[in-house]
Amino acid sequence: MTTEGIEAVFLTTHNWGKAARFFQALGYELEFATDHDSGQLRNGDGPSVFIAEVPENQEPETRIVLKVPDADAFRADPVVEVVTPFEDTHYGTKEMTVRDPDGRLWSLQAPAKH
Question: Whole-model pTM?
Answer without folding.
Answer: 0.85
